[in-house]
Amino acid sequence: MKIAILSQDASLYSTRRLKEAGEAQGHEMRVINYLRCYMNITSHKPTVVYNGNELENFDAIIPRIGASRTFYGTAVVRQFEVMGVFSANESQAISRSRDKLRCLQILAREGIGLPVTGFAHATQDIDGLIDTVGGAPLVIKLLEGTQGIGVVLAETHQAAKSVIEAFRGLDANILVQEFIKEAKGADIRAFVIGTKVVASMKRQGAEGEFRSNLHRGGMAEKIKLTPEERSTAVRAAKAMGLRIAGVDMLRSNHGPVVMEVNSSPGLEGIEKASEVDVAGKMIDFLEKNVKLGKTGDRIQY
């Protein structure tokens, strides 16, 4: 097959591993910086142009769209879909998962476990918003934050009020969530491909840090998931319409709760911690599904 990896940087671990895995299985792999593409949007012959050349005859694409480039990145993915190219994750599913509020609302609609969550923009009833999630301690997030940026743990009611007031001053949309104390600064990343969890890891935050992101000094180790955790991860990915996803969960006293569903999960942490060839499994998935020619997201919300 001829497969394009849509990535801004060919030297990134995840991009390199996907290219290596595809070539090892006999496929023609090409890394394309989607920001340098432009599109000819026409009914008769829609095309994507890169470095002056039309991108033709690709069997599949693997989108690795940066969070800050979601709008243009998904436009390029959508153009490939219009051309009939199979995408590992389709544009609508990527957009759906990147909208944190929409993601949580969809998961709630599907009955998937979540932390108690409140959402606000310019509410004057800050005390009521805090009470919605059971009071302090609680976690306050900027809707647009990534990799733990814009996430604050407020340990007292007054601290929570101060942070919310500060965020309001930024004219920002705010999520407040209950703090899952029993998680002890750790979360679980389940890597879902198709209808299975193929790898998993536990991420532990650095000393004194409640955020477990590896970018913030967290440590990762292999972990065995419970059947409920596996089921929750698969259901969460399916609810987003994602074929490939990293599902982040916390272990709470009332079962697993989903924090985020990532449409471009990194491979370095999960491969090293789990010792699973995740990149190879992604290529295997494409081999089995590209032949089916399934394109077009039909989820209606």
What attributes does this structure have?
301 residues, alpha+beta, Rossmann fold, D-amino Acid Aminotransferase, Chain A, domain 1, Dna Ligase, domain 1, 9 helices, 16 strands, 32% helix
How would you characterize the overall build of this protein?
By secondary structure, this protein is α+β, with helices and mostly antiparallel strands. The chain folds into three domains: 2-92, Rossmann fold (3-Layer(aba) Sandwich); 97-112 and 182-288, ATP-grasp fold, B domain (D-amino Acid Aminotransferase, Chain A, domain 1), CATH 3.30.470.20; 117-179, 2-Layer Sandwich (Dna Ligase, domain 1), CATH 3.30.1490.20. Helices cover 32% and strands 27% of the residues. The chain has nine helices and 16 strands. The protein has helices at residues 13-24, 70-82, 91-98, 100-109, 126-132, 157-169, 227-240, 268-274, 278-290, and strands at 2-6, 28-32, 37-40, 47-50, 53-54, 60-63, 86-87, 117-120, 138-142, 151-154, 174-178, 186-193, 196-204, 219-222, 244-252, 255-262. The strands form four sheets. The protein has a five-stranded antiparallel sheet with strand order 14-13-12-15-16, with helices on both faces. The chain has a four-stranded parallel sheet with strand order 2-1-6-7, with helices on both faces. A four-stranded antiparallel sheet has the order 8-11-9-10, with helices on one face. The protein is globular. One of its GO terms (cellular component) is ribosome. This is Probable alpha-L-glutamate ligase. One of its GO terms (biological process) is SOS response.
